[in-house]
Every structure is written in C-alpha cells, then in structure tokens.
C-alpha cells in the first residue's frame, strides 16, 4: 500500500449568506457570493475581499482536486477572514457555532477524506474553552486559531489558558497568521503583508511562547502546529539564541535558549523551496514538519508535496513522515489507503 498523503493546511469558506453574516455586524461580516459558474467572491459586508473558486465551498469539487493532485486527506480549517475576533464575545460565540456546524456538514460529504477543524471566540478564554469542548464532542478533529487577538499574542494569559485546555482535552491546535503587522507601511503593494507580514507574525507568535516561559507552563502533551513553515523562525533561530545568551532581558523569563523548544511544536512545509525545507527539517527535525499547501488559494503549493519530493537531502522515510505519517499521529488519523 502506498503511504497516504495528508495536507494539514487547507481552507474552507462554507456557504454563509449575507443575512447570516450580520451576526458580526461591524466586525467583518464575512459571507460568500457565488457566481454560478464555479467562481465566487469572499465578501466582507458590502466589500469584495477576494475572488475564489468552487473548491473553497464545494466538497465534491475539492475532493476531485485532491484526487487529481494525489492528496488523500485534508484537515479543513476556516478562512481567517471568518475568525470574528473583533466582535463582542457573545456574538462571536454564536458566529463560531454557525461556522463550525457548516464545516461539519461540509466535511461529512467526504468522511475520511476531510477532517473538520473548528474555530473559537478566542477573545474570551472561557467562551473559547467551552466552544472547543462542544466542537470536539460534535466531531471536530482540531481547532484553528489566529496567531493573535488584537495585541494579545499566544503568551497572553487567556490564550495560554485556552491552549492548556486544548492539551487537557486532547485537541490539536493549528495556528495561522492573520491581520498582519506593518500594514500601514506595506499597504497593499505587491501583496507584501502576505510575503513579509505572515512570516513575521508567525515567528513573533513562536518566540512569544518561548521567551515568555509559556512553554514551561503548558503541558508537553499540547499538539501545536504553526502554518507557513513557522514563518521566519527557522532562518532566524541563531539570532534568537545569540540574543538569549548575551542579554539578560531576552532570557529573563525563559530558562532555556529558543533552540531548546523545537520539540514543543510542529510546522507545516509551506516554504516553496527545497533549500528552505532542508533548513526547516534541520532545525525542527523531520518528525516535526507536516505537509501544508494553503489549498485552494493561488499563493499555496499548487502541486501538493512537490517541495518535499524535490528536497534531495530527505530520506525516503523522512519524506513519508512529512507527507503523511506525522499528520496521522498529530490528528490521530486511523489507517487510510492512498
């Protein structure tokens, strides 16, 4: 039997009407406008946000694309526009319940192929904990969160409380960058918020957990994965270690250097260059990297697993682990045939 391929970073925008989106009035109002010809538009209130294709909301179209590209299983998470973090917590909780139910219904059209990940009102730790418990009981296989809520990053006490709850519940956590910093300087030019901001946001999130000592307080059982290859973290880890060794202010709350914490989280493989992937595997270990494509967006890996397979330094065993074996353990996926 061929080893199955599992994509841990794939988005969905389920059918949600403008009327349903009004629960987030003043906080984005994300909804889907279909064009009827396989095209559609992600909407934010009255504003057009991004043109999209049917694979984003049509399960049959998605599975057909997976079959064409050799992907056996996708962990399906909401498009970050849908987080609703700017809303009143009670309204955000209602919104997340709607989104989570739609994701369950979507994934139920291809059981075993599509793994549903829920979202939560992360702006309120108590509501977020209750939401992830309810979602897991309903069939969600993990939770998808943004890397920050306003100015609160993963070292925030409320977010740490939520992560500890996920560890206790055995719920894997996928962290995705969004609402990128520096937008006032980068603007919309050349998609710089995606090219620069996403990498910076992700590295900032990882280092916030390390340097704050949050990883020392969180259970080792926490299953945590950062999208987009961990951003700039692997490339700049030496810089962080050097600062920890030489400045008291950097190591004040972290008893060990940043490089000592690479066994506390996973990253996906969305780096798009075999040379970058080689460094990522050297830093993280092959057992901590999982295939991620950012499907179905055009800035994702259009040929899933191509970067992994093109990395000549990886052994066959390491390739198999990254393409599927690690994700099967991360999400407790039962045996599937490729």
From TrEMBL:
The keyword RNA-binding does not apply. Monomer. Signal peptide: none annotated. This is 2-amino-3-carboxymuconate-6-semialdehyde decarboxylase. Its EC number is 4.1.1.45. The lineage of its organism: Bacteria, Bacillati, Actinomycetota, Actinomycetes, Streptosporangiales. Pathway: Secondary metabolite metabolism; quinolate metabolism. Residues 6-332 form the Amidohydrolase-related domain. Belongs to the metallo-dependent hydrolases superfamily. ACMSD family. The keyword Metal-binding applies. It comes from Actinomadura rugatobispora. Keywords: Decarboxylase, Lyase, Metal-binding, Zinc. InterPro entries: ACMSD, Amidohydro-rel, Metal_Hydrolase.
């Amino acid at each position: 039997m061929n080893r199955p391929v599992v994509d841990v970073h794939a988005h969905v925008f389920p059918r949600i009407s403008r009327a349903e989106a009004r629960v987030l009035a003043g906080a984005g109002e994300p909804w889907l406008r279909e064009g009827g010809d396989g095209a559609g538009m992600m909407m934010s209130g009255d504003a057009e946000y991004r043109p999209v294709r049917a694979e984003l909301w049509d399960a049959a179209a998605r599975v057909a694309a997976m079959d064409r590209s050799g992907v056996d299983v996708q962990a399906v998470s909401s498009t970050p526009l849908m987080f609703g973090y700017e809303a009143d917590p009670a309204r955000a909780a209602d919104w997340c319940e709607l989104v989570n139910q739609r994701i369950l219904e979507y994934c139920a059209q291809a059981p075993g192929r599509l793994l549903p990940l829920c979202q939560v009102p992360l702006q309120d730790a108590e509501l977020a904990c209750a939401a992830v418990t309810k979602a897991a009981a309903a069939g969600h296989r993990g939770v998808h969160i943004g890397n920050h809520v306003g100015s609160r990053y993963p070292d925030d006490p409320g977010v740490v409380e939520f992560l500890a709850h996920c560890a206790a519940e055995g719920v894997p956590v996928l962290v995705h960058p969004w609402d990128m910093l520096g937008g006032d300087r980068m603007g919309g030019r050349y998609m710089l918020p995606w090219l620069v901001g996403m990498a910076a946001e992700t590295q900032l999130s990882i280092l916030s957990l390390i340097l704050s000592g949050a990883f020392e307080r969180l259970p080792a059982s926490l299953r945590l994965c950062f999208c987009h290859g961990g951003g700039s973290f692997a490339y700049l880890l030496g810089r962080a270690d050097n600062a920890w060794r030489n400045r008291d202010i950097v190591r004040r709350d972290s008893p060990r250097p940043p490089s000592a914490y690479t066994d506390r989280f996973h990253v996906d493989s969305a780096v798009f260059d075999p040379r970058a992937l080689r460094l990522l595997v050297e830093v993280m270990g092959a057992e901590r990297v999982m295939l991620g494509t950012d499907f179905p967006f055009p800035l994702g890996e259009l040929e899933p697993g191509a970067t992994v397979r093109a990395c000549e330094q990886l052994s066959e065993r390491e390739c198999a682990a990254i393409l599927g074996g690690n994700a099967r353990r991360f999400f407790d996926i039962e045996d599937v045939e490729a």
